[in-house]
C-alpha cells in the first residue's frame, strides 16, 4: 500500500512539474504571432468585415490566462467615410485558471483603452452596422432549431469575481448623411468595481456628449446566481451639463418574470432655462414674465409592472408654486387613469405668452375650418381625477379654493363638483360632456352667489362696467364642438341678479342735478359718472340659440328700467326695447313707489358688430325724442317760466342721451 501511495505521489509530482514547466516555458518558446493571421481570418469570417490587430501581442498562461492586444481595427464596407467601424488602441484581459475547474470565474483585469465606434448612415438609408455577422446568424438559427431545450436553471457558473473592469478614453460618432446630423460622445470612461454575483456592483461613468458633460455614479445589484430573479437594488445619481441631477434609488424585482419596480426619483431644483441654454437650444415658449420656469424640482415614488404604474408621495416645485400629487395608470390600451393634485397657488398670467398681432388677427378672422375631433380615445378612457388649487390667477382674475372632481367612463365625462371662491363669493357648478355620438353634448349648471362684480370686471376685463353683488343660477345645454354649432343648439334658462351696485359711465341722477343747476336748484357734478341701483335683474331663456330677456329690470333712486326682446346668437342680431322711467324723486335705493315722470323708450336693433340705437317715437311723451315741459317740471320739482331755460335744458338732456346711447337721434 505504501509503495502504491509512493508511486502516486511521484506521478503527481511529475505532472505538476510538467504543468509548471509548460506554463513557464511555452510562452517563452511558442511564437504566438504566427497565429495572428488565423485569428484575423476567423474574425473576418464571423463578422463579414475586414479585421486586423497589431504585432505587439502579450500572452500569459499561469497563474493568470491573459492576452494583451493592440491596434484592433474592424473595417467599414466600401462607400463610407471612415476606414474602420470599430477601433481599439489597447485590449487586455487576464483570467485565473484554477478556479475554472469549479465553475468559478475570477478576472483580474478587463481593460478596453481608446475604443472608437463610428456609426454612419448613407443618404440611401443604408447603415454601416447592418449585415454584420449575417452568415453566422443564419447558422445559429439553424442550430437552434435542432438543439434540445435545456433543463438547467441559472448561470452555468458558481461564482464571478472581477477585480478591474474599465473602458477608458472611448468615443462614439454617429453621422446621418441624409439628414446632415452628427452626434459625438467623447472622453468616455466607465469603471465597474467589485463585480460579483453576491454583492452590489459599483458603477462610475463619465462622458462628453456633443461637448456637454454627463456622468453616472452609484451601485446596482447584487445580480444573484439566477439573473432576472429576485430583487436587485439600484442607487445611482445622474448628472448632466452641470445643471441637472437625477437620483434613482430602489429595487427592480424579478426583471424576467413579473418585471416589477419600486423606485424613488429625486430631481433637486434646477433651471430649465439654463439647461436648454447649456444645450444651445432656444427656449420653446415665450412667457410674459421672463423670470418664470427658472426653478423646477421633482420628488416622487414610482411603483409598477407591465400592467400598471403608480406615482405616490409626489412633490413638484415650479418657481413659487408647490404641487402635491399622486397618480396611477392601468389597462394602458384604454387607459384607466387616476390622479389627485393639490396646488397651493399659481399666477398663470406670468406663464402665458404675450399675444401677437398675427395671433389676434387669426383669432378674429376665424376662417380656418376646424378639424373634426376624434372622440374614440375619450370613449375608451376611464378617469377619476381630483384637483384642488388654493389660489389661481388667470387673465387678471383671481380664483381661490378651486375644487374639481373629474370622472370619465363609457364616453361620458362628468365634472362634479366644479367649485371655487371668486371675489368674496362662491361658484358651484356641474358639467357633463357626452361624446358617445359624433357630436358632443354638453350640460352645464351654475350656481353663483356673493360675487363682487366690480373688482372682477376690473381685473378680468380691465374695464369698469358695473358694480354690485352678483348672484346667478343657470342651466344650459348645447351640442357640437364649434362655436357655430354651440350657438345653434344653446338651450336653457337662468338669471343674473346684481344688488346694491352701480352702472359705471352713466349718471342719470347727475343729468337731473345738472338740469336743476340751470335753474339754480342744484350744483354741477364732476365725479366719474355712474348710476346707482338697488337691483338689476336679468332673467333669460334660450332655445336653439335664441335668447329672450323679457323681465329684465333695474331699480334705482331716479329711474326704473324694463327691458324686453331677443338676442339671436345664430344670426348675431339684436331686437331689444329698453323702457326707462325717470321718477320725480332722488330718494335712496329701495324706493319702489310709483312715481310720475317721463318715458324715453329706446330700441336696440341690428347686428352685434354695429347695433342701431334709436328712441321709440311711438312710445315717447312729447313726440320729439325729448320730455315735455310738464315732464321737466315734474323732474325738476319747480315752476319753469322761461322758454329759453326750457330749451337750454332740452339741449342738455339731448346731449346726455347722445352720450349714453351712441346712435341716438332726435
Brief sketch in words of this structure:
The chain is 19% helix and 47% strand. The protein contains eleven helices and 34 strands. Helix 9 (508-518) packs antiparallel against helix 11.
Protein topology:
Blueprint lengths: L1 H28 L6 H12 L3 E2 L5 E3 L3 E12 L8 E13 L7 E10 L2 E6 L12 H13 L12 E4 L2 E12 L4 E13 L1 E2 L4 E9 L2 E10 L9 E10 L3 E10 L6 E11 L1 H7 L17 E10 L2 E11 L2 E10 L5 E12 L9 H9 L10 H5 L1 E13 L2 E13 L2 E11 L2 E10 L6 E12 H9 L4 E14 L3 H7 L1 E14 L3 H11 L11 E14 L2 E3 L3 E4 L3 E10 L4 E11 L13 E3 L2 E6 L4 E4 L13 H8 L6 H18 L6
Parallel strand pairs: 5-7, 5-8, 6-8, 19-20
Antiparallel strand pairs: 1-3, 2-3, 3-4, 4-5, 4-6, 7-10, 8-9, 9-11, 11-12, 12-13, 13-14, 14-15, 15-16, 16-17, 17-18, 18-19, 20-21, 21-22, 22-23, 23-24, 24-25, 25-26, 26-27, 27-28, 27-29, 28-30, 29-30, 30-31, 31-32, 31-33, 33-34
Describe it.
With 666 residues, this protein is of the alpha+beta class. Among the domains are: 26-128 and 158-223, no CATH class; 226-321, no CATH class; 490-660, no CATH class. Helix 9 runs antiparallel to helix 11. The protein starts with a helix and ends in a 6-residue tail after the last helix.
Amino acid at each position: 500500500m505504501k509503495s502504491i501511495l509512493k508511486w502516486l505521489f511521484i506521478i503527481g509530482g511529475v505532472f505538476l512539474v510538467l504543468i509548471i514547466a509548460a506554463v513557464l516555458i511555452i510562452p517563452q518558446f511558442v511564437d504566438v504571432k504566427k497565429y495572428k493571421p488565423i485569428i484575423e481570418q476567423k474574425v473576418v469570417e464571423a463578422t463579414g468585415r475586414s479585421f486586423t490587430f497589431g504585432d505587439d501581442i502579450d500572452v500569459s498562461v499561469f497563474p493568470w490566462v491573459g492576452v494583451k492586444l493592440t491596434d484592433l481595427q474592424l473595417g467599414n464596407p466600401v462607400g463610407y467615410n471612415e476606414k474602420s467601424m470599430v477601433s481599439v488602441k489597447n485590449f487586455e484581459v487576464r483570467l485565473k485558471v484554477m478556479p475554472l475547474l469549479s465553475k468559478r470565474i475570477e478576472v483580474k483585469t478587463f481593460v478596453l483603452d481608446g475604443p472608437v465606434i463610428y456609426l454612419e448612415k448613407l443618404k440611401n438609408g443604408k447603415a454601416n452596422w447592418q449585415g454584420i455577422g449575417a452568415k453566422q446568424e443564419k447558422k445559429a438559427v439553424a442550430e437552434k432549431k435542432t438543439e434540445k431545450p435545456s433543463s438547467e436553471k441559472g448561470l452555468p457558473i458558481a461564482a464571478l469575481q472581477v477585480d478591474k473592469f474599465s473602458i477608458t478614453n472611448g468615443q462614439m460618432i454617429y453621422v446621418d448623411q441624409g439628414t446632415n446630423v452628427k452626434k459625438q460622445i467623447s472622453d468616455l470612461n466607465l469603471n465597474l468595481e467589485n463585480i460579483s454575483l453576491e454583492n452590489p456592483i459599483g458603477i462610475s461613468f463619465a462622458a462628453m456628449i456633443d461637448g456637454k458633460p454627463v456622468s453616472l455614479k452609484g451601485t446596482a445589484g447584487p445580480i444573484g446566481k439566477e439573473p432576472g430573479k429576485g430583487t436587485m437594488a439600484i442607487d445611482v445619481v445622474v448628472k448632466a451639463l452641470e445643471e441637472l441631477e437625477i437620483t434613482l434609488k430602489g429595487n427592480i424585482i424579478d426583471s424576467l418574470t413579473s418585471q416589477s419596480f419600486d423606485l424613488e426619483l429625486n430631481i433637486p431644483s434646477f433651471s430649465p432655462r439654463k439647461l436648454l441654454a447649456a444645450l444651445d437650444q432656444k427656449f420653446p415658449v415665450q412667457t410674459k414674465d421672463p423670470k418664470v420656469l427658472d426653478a423646477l424640482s421633482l420628488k416622487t415614488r414610482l411603483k409598477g409592472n407591465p400592467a400598471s404604474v403608480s406615482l405616490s408621495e409626489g412633490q413638484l416645485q415650479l418657481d413659487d408654486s408647490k404641487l402635491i400629487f399622486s397618480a396611477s395608470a392601468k389597462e394602458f390600451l384604454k387607459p384607466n387613469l387616476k390622479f389627485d393634485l393639490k396646488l397651493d397657488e399659481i399666477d398663470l398670467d406670468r406663464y402665458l405668452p404675450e399675444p401677437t398681432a398675427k395671433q389676434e388677427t387669426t383669432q378674429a378672422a376665424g376662417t380656418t375650418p376646424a378639424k373634426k375631433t376624434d372622440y374614440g380615445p375619450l370613449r375608451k378612457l376611464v378617469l377619476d381625477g381630483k384637483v384642488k388649487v388654493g389660489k389661481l390667477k388667470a387673465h387678471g382674475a383671481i380664483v381661490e379654493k378651486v375644487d374639481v372632481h373629474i370622472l370619465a367612463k363609457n364616453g361620458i365625462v362628468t365634472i362634479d363638483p366644479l367649485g371655487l371662491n371668486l371675489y368674496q363669493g362662491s361658484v358651484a357648478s356641474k358639467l357633463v360632456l357626452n361624446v358617445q355620438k359624433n357630436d358632443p353634448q354638453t350640460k352645464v349648471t351654475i350656481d353663483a352667489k356673493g360675487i363682487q362684480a366690480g373688482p372682477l370686471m376690473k381685473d378680468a376685463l380691465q374695464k369698469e362696467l358695473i358694480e354690485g353683488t352678483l348672484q346667478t343660477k343657470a342651466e344650459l345645454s348645447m351640442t357640437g364642438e364649434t362655436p357655430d354649432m354651440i350657438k345653434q343648439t344653446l338651450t336653457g334658462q337662468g338669471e343674473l341678479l346684481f344688488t346694491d351696485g352701480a352702472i359705471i359711465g352713466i349718471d342719470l341722477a347727475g343729468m337731473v342735478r345738472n338740469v336743476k343747476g340751470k335753474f339754480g336748484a342744484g350744483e354741477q357734478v364732476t365725479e366719474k359718472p355712474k348710476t346707482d341701483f338697488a337691483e338689476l335683474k336679468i332673467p333669460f331663456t334660450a332655445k336653439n340659440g335664441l335668447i329672450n330677456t323679457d323681465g329684465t329690470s333695474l331699480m334705482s333712486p331716479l329711474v326704473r328700467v324694463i327691458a324686453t326682446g331677443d338676442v339671436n346668437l345664430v344670426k348675431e342680431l339684436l331686437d331689444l326695447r329698453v323702457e326707462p322711467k325717470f321718477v320725480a324723486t332722488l330718494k335712496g335705493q329701495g324706493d319702489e313707489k310709483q312715481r310720475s315722470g317721463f318715458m324715453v323708450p329706446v330700441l336696440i336693433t341690428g347686428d352685434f358688430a354695429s347695433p342701431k340705437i334709436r328712441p321709440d317715437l311711438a312710445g315717447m311723451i312729447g313726440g320729439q325724442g325729448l320730455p315735455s315741459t310738464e315732464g321737466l317740471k315734474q323732474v325738476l320739482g319747480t315752476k319753469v317760466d322761461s322758454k329759453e331755460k326750457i330749451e337750454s335744458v332740452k339741449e342738455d338732456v339731448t346731449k346726455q342721451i347722445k352720450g349714453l346711447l351712441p346712435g341716438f337721434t332726435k
